[in-house]
Amino acid sequence: MKSLDVDVVVIGGGSTGAGVVRDVAMRGYKAVLVDRVDLAQGTSGRFHGLLHSGGRYVVSDPNSARECAEENEILTRIQASCIETTGGMFVTGPDDDPEFGDRFLKGAAENGVPATEITVAEALKREPRVNRAIKRAISVQDGSVDGWQLVWTAAQSAMEYGAKVLTYHKVTKIEREGDTVSAVICHDAKTGEDVRIGCHFILNCAGAWAGQIAGMAGCHDVEVVPGRGIMIAMNHRLVNTVVNRLIYPADGDIIVPVHTVCVIGTTDVKAPDPDNLPIPRDEVQQMFDAGEVLIPGFRKARAVHAWSGARPLVKDSRVGAGDTRHMSRGMSVLDHSERDGLKGLLTISGGKLTTYRLMAEHIVDAMEKQTGTPHACRTAEEACPGGATDGTAHTYTVTHRLHDREQDRMHDQILCECELMSRRMFTDKLAEQPTG
User: Fold this and answer.
1) Which of 33, 50, 63, 180 has its CA 20 to 30 A from that of 406?
2) Where are the alpha helices (DSSP H) in 296-410?
3) What H or E segment, with its residue span, contains residue 171?
4) Residues 157, 176: contact at Cβ < 8 Å?
5) Residue 124's Cα: distance from chain center in Å?
6) Residues 6+ apart with CB under 8 A from 272
7) How far apart are CA 337 and CA 331, in angstroms?
8) What digits encode the pLDDT tens for the residues 152-196?
9) What's the rounded Cα separation, in Å, for the pair 321 and 225?
10) Packed helices 100-110 and 62-78: angle between N→C axes, nearest 10 degrees
11) Given the DSSP bridges, would you call strands 143-145 and 83-84 parallel, antiparallel or unpaired?
12) Are 101 and 146 in contact (CB under 8 A)?
């Protein structure tokens, strides 16, 4: 069995795990991140691409709204290359309650979420395909974010500070010495070897799978509720601005322009198993129907891909056990020394991809509170590759991948319309990673 020793093991290679290993490494710890597959293969790569302005939660979850508004500004600086500043608007559909807009504007003002009511005429000028029967429109600072690029650049920043990132390393066991964690055992899916990683602390960032990881350490009944949602990518950008319905959050109430396509989402149903996320036919039809409310003729576009993801929601005693739509989107850090008498293990759940950096700051602060070795968090001030804190970095535009394909578009087949990946790009990557 191979072995290595570090200060901190981070479990989970989604946005939260990548943010955590970056924060840990920047504070001077020797750290390693492990994931059973590749980076962003779970929830972080299975969402609708929205960089939240906070608008979606100004009525339903004000604390999340404030966090999203603050982190939107930070991420647009430190990871500019991952973000398109599309802007967004919330519109009152023909059958929606116009008075909800007053509650929305009040909540936005109270929670620091920039929002300005615009005329229906201005909204239709901005987005001509939007339903001409809308009654109100409010402009917000929503954006579009490339989730994979976000995770990769955070991980790259962590590696520049000396962290290791071990993908295809599935956690099989957590060892403990008395009341303290001592090691993580992983199985390397590529080599077939087992790896023992000795450590002083484990940060469980496994998202919807966090309960399974905690159970390996003998900390059972960690209740992270997987909220399954489906999304559909249409074959071109029906809108160039994020368009939301001006209602309390519901199914299929948002369309996000992502690179050369647009994505509609999402449903929200409790999932018994985050590894088994079906895409029911009736929910697909539900998304098409919802799209028609925002964009008449939505069904006439071609759907190129449908997928589902599992939100790692914190169980909320205020709502029913199966009502994931109304569970808080806030983050939660669970200290297992208090809950289970096990030192050196923290679990984080909840939150949004937009708030991943803040989630990392919170769990690393909690770790240092337990260890008594505080260091300042610098992740909001220092840019990841592709970002800058002095205003010199540029967010991407829809044309950036089209520009890259201009030279080979006539003779190299496009395999993926969403990512504009050509056959040559795919085969080159296969050659680089034959066992990937």
Assistant:
1) 50
2) 336-339, 356-371, 399-405
3) strand 169-177
4) no
5) 30
6) 226
7) 19
8) 999 999 999 999 999 999 999 999 999 999 999 999 999 999 999
9) 9
10) 60
11) antiparallel
12) no
